[in-house]
Amino acid sequence: SVVLAGVLLKLGGYGMIRYNLTLFPAASQWAAPALAILAVIGIIYGAAVAFAQSDMKKLVAYSSVSHMGFVVLGIFALNTEGISGAVLQMVNHGLSTSALFLMVGVLYERRHTRELAAYGGLWKVMPVFAAFSLLVALSSAGLPGLNGFVGEFTIITGAFCSPLLGWIYVAFAVGGVVLAAAYLLKLFRSLFMGEVHQPDNTKLPDLNRRELTTFALLSIPIVLIGIYPVFFFNGMQYSVAALVADLMAQVAGS
């Protein structure tokens, strides 16, 4: 699941940018509103189904699908802001969602159950793990100052400024952000808040050195992208601008 979320899901987004926009520019512009509709449907539907889950792995899986909807929305805004945000959001998704799946794996390895009802109060038992989990959940929810906010805000800006899309797409995307905050806070509350009401949870070990190193390596770029995104945008600025300029030139000449 970590490899799927961190790497394989991005192949679709890469293919859309690398092949659809460059090989079929006119078709991409013509289909952009319809594909953006599918994107916002994916955002809302994935978030709503995630909120309804009692299995934490299924919750994270539907969250992953919902967040990839933002990538598609940014790509088919067909402007510099949208595509730049989509590229960054693919990186963000690989960090935050991979960390969420790792969080699920840590708990499943110790308790062999994915049901949210089997947990509660773990911040008292595993405080270091709880701190990393809170950071990752807030990142995925799009808290300002963390990586998720930068990608989603840039995509939403691109969609709003796009002559092909507009405010209605933005309204649904913002609704998806609100739902994401709801199900991620539900996840954190169910796992970590309250009292420890399961005897098997009272002696769970906190993160070992290997797990701590893994979470730390994911957390560092989560924070860095959030507080200094210009470094990452500068790295893609010229290639994205050239892609959009070439796309518009081919559409105008067709």
From TrEMBL:
Q: What is this protein called?
A: NADH:ubiquinone oxidoreductase subunit M
Q: Which GO terms describe its biological process?
A: ATP synthesis coupled electron transport; electron transport coupled proton transport
Question: What PANTHER family has UniProt attached to this entry?
Answer: NADH-UBIQUINONE OXIDOREDUCTASE CHAIN 4
Q: Which GO terms describe its molecular function?
A: NADH dehydrogenase (ubiquinone) activity; NADH dehydrogenase activity; ubiquinone binding
Give the NADH:quinone oxidoreductase/Mrp antiporter transmembrane domain ranges: 1-164
Provide the species name.
Answer: Chloroflexus aggregans
Query: What is the protein's major site of localization?
Result: membrane
The membrane-spanning stretches of this chain are: 30-52, 59-78, 90-109, 121-144, 164-185, 212-233
Q: Which Pfam families match?
A: Proton_antipo_M
Subcellular localization, per the record?
Endomembrane system; Membrane
A single GO cellular-component term on record: endomembrane system
